[in-house]
Amino acid sequence: MQAEHKVNTGRDRAGFWSRRYLPTNVGLFTLAFLFAFESLAVGTVMPVVARELDGLSLYGLAFGAPMATAVVTIALAGGWTDARGPAPALRTGVVLFSVGIAAAALAPSMVMLVLGRSLQGLGAGLGLLLTVSAVAWFAGSLAAANLAVLANKVARVRLGALFLAVGIGAAAWSVDPQMSILLPVLGWAVAGAGIGMAFPTLSVLMLDFSAEGEEGTNSSSLQVNDNLVQSLWLALGTVAFALMLPVTPLGAFIGAFASAAGLAAAALALSGRLASPRSARS
């Protein structure tokens, strides 16, 4: 039986910056800026902090702990959102994230810093590198949401995966010291635009396929998968890179780019299995 589809009304077609959506969008942009600024700041100062706190042995854990704790709260947030709506989880997440930042900033030791970072991860999991890639990511998302030529969601995912593969391939040329820096920068921008097209669209497609009342659970499952795969790949990649770097520095960097390009190519191949919600539902 063909599933019923909601009929769009004038209220449903309210503009992105309309009064109905303005407070939510401003809040989301503020949170995104907060998370991006925090990520950039931590990545910049962490080597100095770890040295000052005599905690270089816990350096990797300071980055991995937030990802690990976020997996827990992302899983919890799905059912909570289905039962109570998004507001309670979002507010709790912002409070935990803010307390975690304060705890990490005031930490007298590396252990306390890791605990503060873990608390941040709990908040980030409930609540949800500002570079050229991030700007391109935003541009890709904006184009996907507003350009008629990108109205087909499945096509957006495929195009985004293609952009990602091409962009990583171009960025990989940064290993050549004779290559102009412009090519890797442009490549990274193309990759960011691809992520901006594909990543949010996959979330929307997941909602299209979800039964009523299961949206939160399915959303949290998708995010748990993202965090687990990212954490696993980062762990394996870090170990492989560290082992290769003393032996063949160039090979270590080439291997890192090659593995990323391979994943992008796999995503492009798998995107061919996607179908629109209307044709896939029965």
Strand content: under 5%
Radius of gyration over C-alpha positions, nearest whole angstrom: 21 Å
Name the assembly state. Answer: single chain
CATH topology heading of the largest domain: Growth Hormone, Chain: A
Please provide the ordered H/E string of secondary-structure elements. HHHHHHHHHH
Helix content: over 70%
Task: Please identify which CATH superfamily of the largest domain we are dealing with.
Answer: MFS general substrate transporter like domains
Mean pLDDT, to the nearest integer, reads 77
Number of helices: 10
Tally of discrete structural domains: 2
- Low-pLDDT parts are 1-11
| CATH architectural name of the largest domain | Up-down Bundle
Can you identify the CATH class of the largest domain? Answer: Mainly Alpha
Q: Let me know the largest β-sheet.
A: none
**Pairing-aware structural class of the strands and helices?**
mainly alpha
Distance between the termini: 5 Å
State the total count of DSSP E strands.
Answer: 0
Anisotropy-based shape: globular
Question: In short, what is this structure?
Answer:
With 282 residues, this protein is mainly α.
Task: Describe this protein with a few key phrases.
single chain; 282 residues; mainly alpha; disordered N terminus
Describe this structure in words.
With 282 residues, the protein is mainly α. The chain folds into 2 domains: 22-127, no CATH class; 132-280, MFS general substrate transporter like domains (Growth Hormone, Chain: A, Up-down Bundle). The protein is 76% helix and 0% strand. It contains 10 helices and no strands. The protein has helices at 22-52, 59-84, 86-105, 110-127, 132-146, 153-171, 182-209, 215-244, 249-270, 277-280. Helix 3 (86-105) packs antiparallel against helix 4 (110-127) and helix 6 packs antiparallel against helix 7 (182-209). The longest helix has 31 residues, at 22-52. The protein is globular, with a radius of gyration of 21 Å. It starts with 21 loop residues before the first helix and ends with a helix.
